[in-house]
User: What shape does this take?
Amino acid sequence: MAIIDFREIPSSKGGQAGQDEWALFTREFFDAMGVKAEEGPDRGPDSGRDLILTERRIGTLGTGEHRWLVSCKHYAHSKKAVYDSKEVDIIGRLRKFRANGFIAFYSTVPSSGLSGTLERVKEDFGVEVYDCERIERALLENTALKRVFERFFPESYARYTREHIAPRAVGDLPLRIRCNVCGKDLMDERNGIFGFANRVVEGHKVETVDVYWACRGECDRLLESRFDKRGLITGWEDIDDLSIPLVFMHWIITWMNSLRKGEHKFTEKAYEKFSEFTFAMAQLVVRETTEEERERIESLRDIPFYLGGLDQWGTELKHIQT
Ligand SMILES: [Zn+2]
Assistant: This one.
């Protein structure tokens, strides 16, 4: 996976700063999960740091405390595994600290030799290995760790959140929503509006004559004034707001309702543009398509009036670019 770059925490080379910060991160990691540090960080063998964590366990017959000895090792910069020789006398250390279990908290992985040693320790003590993948998974999946992720790995966090909300293709090709005036990518800029130009027909009904999307500000004002000159009434929605799943669904259903009631009409062109925009917008809202679902899509394409009719998307779009 490697979404998180553990090297954002400095290496211990040329001083103990990195090792200290990795130990600090370890402490905050478990603290956020409700396990408090009792002692440490203390210097461990070979410039690693040890922590003692106390986990309160509530049992049927009574409540007890479980003491964990945590060994923090930060080798992400050298990408080296943690060798057996770097964990001196684990059982002796567990006894010394009167601990019930051992946690290996490594920014890389334990070597196979060390893994063997840990298996033997497991016969008498609890052992948990937090290697780079397990730590990453916890930081990404456990919401209690969000602040710790952000604090210790600010760059990875920014990259992850950016990519997380990046558009994902719904159809065959990713579609871009570009400003109708200057061509700027509104999905990247996140500062655009979706506008519609209406007129009143038959006394009370509203007809959307045209729709548009543009940067907020100059581009948007230019289009607005053009429609204004044609005597049309403009309105708009924030594209950023429309990328919120609930707002997006609300927007679609509101349009469906008003079309059903016959309160609203679209010109052919406006409806086409509206549909294409909505389809492209969905890329910011829906989740990724799985491999299995892709195969299902292929078989659904063979059914006329179902996805067969959707084939135009991505191949015959007139108002949206790929
Ligand atoms: Zn623009």
